[in-house]
Amino acid sequence: MTLEDLAQALTRAGFAGVELAPPLVYARGDGPSAPEFTATLADGVLLTQRFDVRAPEAALSDWKISQRGRLSIVNGETHLTLLVPEPDLALALPVWRGLMQAASKAAVSWRRGQRPLHGM
User: Fold this and answer.
1) So which domain of life are we looking at (predicted)?
2) What is the pLDDT of residue 16?
């Protein structure tokens, strides 16, 4: 699989704003105003969405129990990732869309939970 193939797969799956910028492909979930995520080739296809909020430890633990994607903290941001074998990409993209939606909703509550700490 090439990055061009990856970009075409994302477009076929209905992701918006697919843009090739080697070594990454950028795309958005549900339309042009949706959060952006990246896809790259790394022992399969690595899908990553970043949230500019730090998820609480309890949320990270709960996510590990109930979800396929992985949440981690990288440089103070929460990253949602899903590593997919290339042959399984078409089947995994609807799962990725659902994970992004769930994580986006959760990120709103994480941010609200920080308001008392940071005066937001």
Assistant:
1) Bacteria
2) 94
Which residues, at least 6 apart from 34, have a Cβ–Cβ distance to it below 8 Å?
A: 16, 28
Q: What is the per-residue pLDDT for 108?
A: 73
Domain range summary for the chain, segments of one domain joined by +: 3-112
Low-confidence ranges of the chain (pLDDT < 50): 120
Cis peptide before 32 (omega within 30 of 0): no
Token pair, residue 67, equals: 């979800």
DSSP string spanning 49-78?
EEESSPPPHHHHHHHHHH-SSEEEEETTEE
Q: Are 20 and 7 in contact (CB under 8 A)?
A: yes
- Structural tokens at position 58: 């309890």
Q: What CATH number is given for 3-112 in this structure?
A: 3.30.1460.10
pLDDT of residue 112: 66
Q: What is the pTM (predicted TM-score) of this model?
A: 0.84
